């Protein structure tokens, strides 16, 4: 069941420790993933291809509101997490309530930290920590023309 892929930090750390003991490379990314679209699917599939397991840090509703404004998220964290967990290339979903995933990255200690190419290694939160701990940081080209904000704007203009 997809719900089993959505774990508290404590349970996730146990799962990740088991994967690492098996020699699995852990890739990590994060985001709001409010209205899942082709850009998200393409990005997450490519992120997973960089490691053996993909752990996704998902912003809580409160965190999304602070980052995107009071009208967001469109989809609740429960709904967003279930949709993301249903993707076969996402192995684990963990919520974080902070504005950045810094403490989550430091707890998980991923082998590969992944973000879209709208970031540079220098601007990716946690990159310095991952590199200092022997990991790598990768950026993935984003599908042009797709963002949740642009989809929300299009819906609002058509209504």
Tell the overall outline.
Answer: globular
- Structure class: alpha/beta
- The overall average pLDDT, rounded, is 94
Instruction: Give the count of helical stretches.
Output: 7
Report the helical percentage. 40-55%
Q: Which parts are unreliable, with pLDDT below 50 for 5 consecutive residues or more?
A: none
- State the end-to-end CA separation: 36 Å
Tally of strands: 5
Order of helices and strands: HEHEHHEHEHEH
Strand content: 15-25%
Radius of gyration from CA coordinates: 15 Å
Largest sheet: 5 strands, parallel
Q: What strand order characterises the main sheet?
A: 3-2-1-4-5
Characterization of the model:
With 159 residues, this protein is α/β, with parallel strands linked by helices. Helices cover 42% and strands 18% of the residues. The chain has a five-stranded parallel sheet. Strand 4, helix 6 and strand 5 form a beta-alpha-beta unit. The longest helix is centred in the first third of the chain and has 13 residues, at 9-21. It is globular and about 50 Å long. The chain starts with 8 loop residues before the first helix and ends with a helix.
């Amino acid at each position: 069941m997809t719900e089993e892929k959505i774990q508290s930090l404590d349970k996730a750390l146990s799962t990740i420790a088991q994967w690492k003991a098996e020699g699995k490379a852990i890739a990590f990314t994060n985001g709001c993933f409010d209205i899942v679209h082709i850009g998200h699917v393409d990005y997450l599939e490519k992120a997973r291809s960089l490691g053996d397991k993909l752990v996704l840090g998902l912003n809580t509703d409160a965190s999304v509101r602070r980052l995107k404004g009071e009208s967001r998220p469109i989809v609740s964290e429960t709904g967003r997490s279930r949709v993301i967990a249903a993707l076969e290339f996402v192995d684990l979903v963990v919520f974080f309530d902070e504005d950045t995933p810094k403490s989550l990255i430091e707890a998980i200690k991923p082998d590969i930290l992944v973000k879209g190419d709208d970031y540079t290694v220098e601007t990716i939160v946690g990159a310095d920590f991952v590199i200092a701990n022997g990991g790598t940081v990768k950026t993935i080209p984003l599908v042009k023309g797709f963002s949740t904000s642009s989809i929300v704007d299009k819906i609002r203009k058509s209504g």
